Amino acid sequence: MTVDDSVFGETVSVLEGDSVTLNTDLIEILEDDDILWKFGAEMSLIAGISREKQIFYKYDNVPDGIFRDRLKLDNQTGSLTIMNITTQHAGLYELQISGAKLTSKTFSVSVYAHLPVPNITRDCSSSSSSSASSYCSLLCSVVNLSHVTLSWYKGNSLLSSISVSDLSISLSLPLEVEYQDKNSYSCVINNPISNQTTHLDISQLCHTCSGVFEVSLIKGDSVTLNTDVTEIPENNDILWTFGVGSSLIAEIRREKQIFSMYDVPDGIFRDRLKLDYQTGSLTITNITTQHTGVYELQISGAKLASKTFSVSVYGRLSVPNITRDCSSSSSSS
Questions:
Q1: Taking the mean position of all CA atoms in its chain, how far away is CA 132?
Q2: pLDDT tens-place string over residues 94-136
Q3: Which of 10, 81, 245, 332 has its CA 20 to 30 A from that of 62?
Q4: What is the three-state SS of 22-83?
Q5: Are 79 and 21 in contact (CB under 8 A)?
Q6: Cα 280–286–289 angle (5° rounding)?
Q7: Is residue 203 helix, strand or coil?
Q8: Which contacts of 292-297 are long-range, i.e. CB under 8 A and separated by 24 or more positions?
Q9: Which residues contact 257 (CB under 8 A, 6 or more apart)?
Q10: Helices (H), 157-301
Q11: What domains lie within the chain, and their CATH numbers?
Q12: Which of 7-16, 105-114, 164-173 has the lowest mean pLDDT?
């Protein structure tokens, strides 16, 4: 047997949930050839073919069972298909073909999450700046993503951007525009293989801020954030968002009869939210310090209105304990 030291590397990028086929580039496996597929830093064996012995096998349970029910092996060409791929399957794959000579081929597979549409909100926390009277402060946000870039564009010109690589975090990017600005602005989130865009409508979003309502309460209490609406009109939508990432936690779409609450981010609102279906007001029960932060109400319909609440949650104070210090009773005084 001769050994061919040539190594052919391919880079493959794919979206999470898709399927990818790693090709051997063979029309048919020769009678005395063996095919081995390996994965990861440890080069764990995940599939193989021994044509002479008529053995075709897949090891779905290594490593850690991440390939279970996801591998397909072409018995004629030896090509390997990974179905319903996830970020766990990103990494290095090695194909080894042994027979009259030994050849190998490597694949570097990158798996990217499907991108959400960026969320543009009015940043009323900047309304106290000296330029607030002539400029509209905005925030474009996405949550829990990695290997992405978030950017603001004016027409086709890049204004600013921020990137994250390995960590899965929330990203926010500010922008200030004049209220009378007639230019076209858009916020774009992209990774190496896809992108999502939200276009800014200045006339709809850049309304005058009504101020930030400060709310302070004790841990374990309940608080109601009021919309000040007696009844939601038929064509209005109510959106409640929370935190720097503007995570959607509750919504009412009266026309479609949608009334929903979400326990994101990180499940901190699970079984704690109550939504008044008539007024849209939001109640947080048994509140904790995790619920401290900025809540934004958006009411959209004939016109767009918003209201911001800054909620601070404090622990209950214990009663001070006064004791006699007998350790100083032996002093001369």
A1: 31
A2: 999 887 677 889 999 999 888 888 888 877 655 444 444 567 8
A3: 10
A4: ECCCCCCCCCCCEEEEEECCCCEEEEEEECCCCEEEECCCCCCCCCCCCEEECCCCCCEEEC
A5: yes
A6: 100
A7: helix
A8: 293/242, 293/243, 293/244, 294/125, 294/212, 294/242, 294/243, 294/244, 295/225, 295/240, 295/241, 295/242, 296/121, 296/124, 296/240, 296/241, 296/242, 296/246, 297/225, 297/227, 297/238, 297/239, 297/240
A9: none
A10: 202-205
A11: 2-112 (2.60.40.10), 119-205 (2.60.40.10), 212-314 (2.60.40.10)
A12: 164-173
Task: Name the band, by pLDDT with cuts 50, 70 and 90, for residue 2.
Answer: very low
Helix (H) or strand (E) holding 104: strand 101-112
At 176 the three-state DSSP class reads: strand
- Whole-angstrom Cα distance, residue 297 to residue 241? 7
DSSP3 helix / strand / coil % (the chain, rounded to 5) = 5, 50, 45
Helices (H), the chain: 202-205
The pairing of strands 135-145 and 119-122 is: antiparallel
Most confident of 17-31, 168-182, 233-247: 17-31
**Distance in angstroms (rounded) separating the CA atoms of residues 27 and 318:** 77
Residue linked to tokens 């073919």: 49
What mean pLDDT is reported for the chain? 82
| Omega cis (within 30) before 320 | no
Q: pTM of the entire structure?
A: 0.54
CA–CA separation, 71 vs 24, rounded Å?
15
